[in-house]
Design a protein that fits this description.
Layout (H helix, E strand, L loop, with lengths): L3 E5 L4 H17 L4 E4 L4 H11 L8 E4 L4 E4 L4 H9 L2
Parallel strand pairs: 1-2
Antiparallel strand pairs: 1-3, 3-4
């Protein structure tokens, strides 16, 4: 079962900046993150709303459902890696 989610908008400049870090994390750490686009996909937007629960209210939004830790907006690679590893 997946437990790491990234919600993003295709044209969101902050999301675009984070894509590089997400891809680096996937490649270097072999960590699986489910990336869901929400600006053009209503089903993904509903999933974001159900998982966000007023924690962030926008994208990019990252949530680790095992630890319930989340990141709103941009973060450093070190922050993203710690979030993904549950640290």
């Amino acid at each position: 079962m997946r437990h790491l989610y990234e919600f993003y908008g295709t044209e969101c400049p902050h999301c675009i900046d984070m894509r590089t870090l997400v891809e680096k994390l996937k490649k270097e750490e072999k960590i699986e993150i489910e990336s869901l686009e929400v600006w053009h996909n209503d089903e993904n937007m509903k999933k974001l709303e159900s998982m966000d629960k007023d924690m962030c209210g926008g994208v990019p939004f990252f949530i680790n459902t095992q630890t319930n830790k989340f990141i709103c907006g941009e973060a450093s690679y070190e922050e993203l890696k710690a979030w993904a590893k549950g640290e």
